Amino acid sequence: MNDGVLLDVRNLDVFIGESHILQNVSFQVREGGITGLLGRNGVGKTTTLRGILGLVRRTGSVTLAGDELTALDVPQVVRRGVGYVPEDRDVFGGLTVDENLRLAERPGSPLRYELVYDLFPELRTRGAQRAGTLSGGQQQMVALARALLNADNRILLIDEPTKGLAPLVVGLVTNALKRAAEVATILLVEQNLAVAHKLVRDVIVLDQGQVGFIGNVEQLMGDPALARKHLGVAHG
Asked: Would you say residue 236 lies in a domain?
């Protein structure tokens, strides 16, 4: 493994049906902080996260701290230290908040309940409430808390955590992600460019299922022509 590289994705290809969604996607994620996976809608960002986790059939190589993950099934990848927060949150609506969190526990893994409740104190007070009755923002808190709970998670794959949330809740989630990045590396898909600019250090931009740009966030966001080329909008 190269010094400082935690996740190394090489020549990742994903087919879904007859569609060639990802084509020879290669990038690295440095250990620590937040790396942004950006791009227009439909370019393959969510598929990339799912490919890393093994939720879709893929070819190529995915290594975590030098450990090859490609031949492993999803539970094995998770046990190696990969946490996942999907775009649709996937909370268990019929279970309480406490039960949702307990389901995320892994035997032998140190747990971060103190951090979770510090970031999201509302989850402690709503522990007995069914998750299906929570607001969208509260459900996102549960989803993030589940990924953060296990201290063995070395990298968190987080897909559009602020999508559809009220501005006040977006601010809460943004601050929580900053804190989360102090204890785990994060690969973040985020369409809100203002949020991405605040949070990420390195960026990978996908375009039509291929890598179109890799670099520093300031290099991308500070150049209107470059941002327009890769993101379809000039971030101000």
From this structure: no
